[in-house]
Amino acid sequence: MDIDEIKTLTQLMVDNDLAEIIIRDGEKRVMLRRRGSGVEHMIHAAPLPAAMPQPPAVQAAAAAPAPAAPAPDAGLLKVTSPMVGTYYSSSNPESPPFVRIGDRINPESVVCIIEAMKVFNEIKAEVSGVVESIEIQNGSPVEFGQILLRVRP
Question: What SS3 state is found at 69?
Fold first, then answer.
C-alpha cells in the first residue's frame, strides 16, 4: 500500500465520519484510526522479531543482582479486587469513603464498591488490621487481582 492509497482512505474516513478502517491482505494489515481531530496510522507488514540482541555490556548489567533492600510494604496484607470493574471509595459522591488511611478494619468491613456491568458490589476486607495505603483512586478501572489496599495486621 502506498502513501496515495493511505491518503485516499484517510479522506474517505473524514468525509464519512468513520472512526476506524482495517484492511487485511494476506500478511499485510493496515489499520487507520481517528482520535479526536488527528488520524493515527498503523501499518503491519510482517511479524516483528522476537528480541533484539543486546551488547555484552548491557547483558552484564542486567545479569548483576541488585542489592537486596527490605521492601517498604514487608509484612503488609493486600486487599485485592475480586473482579474487573470500576472502583468507588464510597456509596455515593456525597458520602464519606468506606475506609481512610489509619482506619482499623476487620474481615467484614466494606472497603469499597466495584461496579461491574451496572451492578454495584460491596467488597469486604477479608483481613484485619490498620489501613496503611489506598492504592487506587475513586472512579478508576480495576482488574481482577489488582491491589486496592495495603493493611498492617
Answer: coil
| Cβ-based neighbour number of residue 90 at 10 Å | 14
How far apart are alpha carbons 45 and 26 in whole angstroms?
Answer: 9
| Sequential DSSP letters for 106-130 | -TT-EEEEEEETTEEEEEE--S-EE
What lies within 8 Å, CB to CB, of 109 at 6+ separation is: 98, 99, 124, 125
Q: Say if strands 110-116 and 85-88 run parallel, antiparallel, or are unpaired.
A: antiparallel
Beta carbons of 1 and 28 less than 8 angstroms apart:
yes
Percent of the chain whose predicted confidence (pLDDT) is above 70: 71
Q: State the Cα–Cα distance between residues 3 and 67, nearest whole angstrom.
A: 51
Structural domains of the chain, ranges and CATH numbers in brackets: 3-44 (no CATH), 77-152 (2.40.50.100)
Q: Cα angle at 99 between 129 and 135, to 5 degrees?
A: 85
Neighbours of 124 (CB within 10 A): 15
pLDDT tens, 71-130?
A: 566 789 999 999 999 999 998 889 999 999 999 999 999 999 999 888 899 999 999 999
